[in-house]
Amino acid sequence: NVRIYFLAGSQHGPSAFPPAQTLGQHEQNPNDYYWMFRALVPAMDRWVRTGATPPASRYPRLADGTLVEIAQFRFPAIPRTAAPGAAVTGVRIENPALSRRGAPGTPLPLLVTTVDADGNERAGVRLPEVAVPVATYTGWNLRRPDIGSPDRLVSLMGAWIPFAPTADVARTTGDPRASLAQRYASRADFLAQVRRSAEAVAHEGFLLAKDADAVVEQAALRWDRVVGTVRAGQ
């Protein structure tokens, strides 16, 4: 009688778009997972009222390798992007019921999700914004060097790290991720892929079919910002 959904590539609450760079080394993460809430709230209502089951739980797992200790976390070598390789956790307290699970003072395990070649999380619910991306979306954002402690996380903040628009730009900057031009034949091709992804996610129950048009319109704004045809604030 419980469902657990991991929202791949999201921060605590979606950033406004265009995203702003504040305390973090990158702009905040605008992955808009509220579309998913619009589908899951009525699904929960149907579950209570009629017994119609919602989508199965979807989250990273140790068993399939999508959840690992932070020391095993591997992130692509994106220019000017340092990934967290360690973090301070709490420690176990004395508990007779858990005598074989670690003595008092033993650090608690810190588990994180694995990512694909773009740095986007592999497990969980991948909405079109992450499944057909124009950027890397993270749930973390390290502090800017000028405010100190650049190896520490900004609380509750993720990052949006756009792809290069062309292969030439990617080579010039040393970005190992495929550029937009290498991924998509055109803007129209990109939006067509977003629509197919939206329809697939709606079929799974994580998006309302009537919201597909709005999701595609939102994706177009992301594309335009990355290729530079729309400037922030316009």
Structure notes:
- This protein is mostly helical and 234 residues long.
- The chain is built from six helices and four strands; from the N terminus they run H-E-E-H-E-E-H-H-H-H.
- The strands form two sheets. It has a two-stranded antiparallel ribbon.
- The longest helix has 18 residues.
- It is globular.
- The C terminus is likely disordered.
Order of helices and strands: HEEHEEHHHH
Helix content: 25-40%
On the 0 to 100 scale, the average pLDDT is: 92
Most strands sheet: 2 strands, antiparallel
Give the helix/strand class: mainly alpha
How many DSSP-defined strands?
4
> Residue ranges: pLDDT <50 for 5 or more in a row?
230-234
Query: What is the beta-strand fraction?
Result: 5-15%
What's the alpha carbon Rg, rounded to whole Å?
20 Å
- For the biggest β-sheet, the strand order reads 1-2
Count of individual helical segments:
6
Shape: globular
Terminal Cα span: 46 Å
Q: What features would you highlight for this structure?
A:
234 residues; mainly alpha; two-stranded antiparallel sheet; two-stranded antiparallel ribbon; 6 helices; disordered C terminus
